[in-house]
Amino acid sequence: MARLISVALVVSMAACAPTGEDGQPASPDRPLLVSAAVSLIDVLETLAAAYERDTGTQVELNVAGSSALAVQIIAGAPVDLFISADLFQMDRVAAEELIRVETRVVLLSNQLVVVVPADTTATVPSPATLNDPMFGRIAIGDPDGVPVGVYARAYLESVGLWNALRDRMVPTRSVRAVLATVETGAVDAGIVYRTDALSSSGVRVVFEVPVAEGPAIVYPAALTTLATNPEAAERLLAYLQGPDARIVFEQAGFIVPEAQP
After folding, report:
1. Tell me: the pLDDT tens digits for 123-135?
2. Cα distance from N-terminal residue to C-terminal residue, the chain
3. Rg of the chain (C-alpha set)
4. Is 253 helix (H, G, I), strand (E, B) or coil?
5. How far is CA 100 from CA 5, 36, 43, 236, in A?
6. Which residues contact 54 (CB under 8 A, 6 or more apart)?
């Protein structure tokens, strides 16, 4: 079964991992370590369990905000496969020459939605409705680094609402933190990915940002140069782009790009 590990643990692993003669971490037989955006947690748990069952290869999932994961990899965490929720965090890691460029792919896409606590009757027929006084507190990811917050700010700027709403924003560390904040009723609304909203019975979707009008939400994936078993990591990445994984991703609400010829 896929194992979840903590953010703190993955950093400590970098410090204590044994190294081979070339200075790279040894232990190629250890489980594959996948650092993935927290918005992928549910679907990757399902896929990792299926992959382990079919191949016998163990997979450990380290899920957190993409910005935190990028920091971990730059600090030397022995990650085999990195899946970010935006291009910027992947580019940060690439700028440090820590990804295998030839393996980089666009794995998935997503969509922004506005959610409210499930027990409220609020409606949002258009984004301008967020100007209503009933939406005094709106949770988003930190717009300075958390992908869902970066996307939310970009969308609100594109429709001319960011300046009017910015003082109402409650920034959080991840999309799941936004979701939890809305679920508890601590805020009046939140902006999350459609897939996260679908995973929760504690929120209600009141507005979907049309894909054509919203920012391009891209999940790039790549092997890192710290991968101790790149062949196995490549097989896992290929599986995540295959037909079985596509069905699971689409059932969870993700948008899967068409295969490149």
Report:
1. 999 999 999 999 9
2. 33
3. 19
4. coil
5. 23, 16, 24, 15
6. none
Say how far apart CA 124 and CA 131 lie, in whole Å.
10
Residue type, 235: R
* Whole-angstrom distance, CA of residue 235 vs CA of residue 105: 14
Q: Where are the domains of the chain?
A: 3-109+217-251, 112-208
Contact yes or no for 147/85 (Cβ under 8 A): yes
What number does CATH give the domain 3-109+217-251?
Answer: 3.40.190.10
Using DSSP, state whether 123 is helix, strand or coil: coil
Residue ranges of the chain with per-residue pLDDT less than 50: 1, 5-28, 261
Strands across the sheet with 59-64, in order?
3-5, 59-64, 32-37, 81-83, 218-223, 105-109
pTM of structure: 0.83
The 10s digit of each residue's pLDDT in 196-248 is 999 999 999 999 999 999 999 999 999 999 998 899 999 999 999 999 999 99
3-state class (DSSP) for residue 132: coil
DSSP string covering 145-193 = T-HHHHHHHHHHHHTT-HHHHGGGEEEESSHHHHHHHHHTTSSSEEEEE
Q: What is the pLDDT of residue 4?
A: 53
Answer yes or no: are the C-beta atoms of 69 and 257 closer than 8 Å: no
In angstroms, the CA 110 to CA 19 distance is: 38
CATH T-level topology, domain 112-208: D-Maltodextrin-Binding Protein; domain 2 (3.40.190)
List beta partners, residue 193.
112
pLDDT for the residue numbered 216: 94
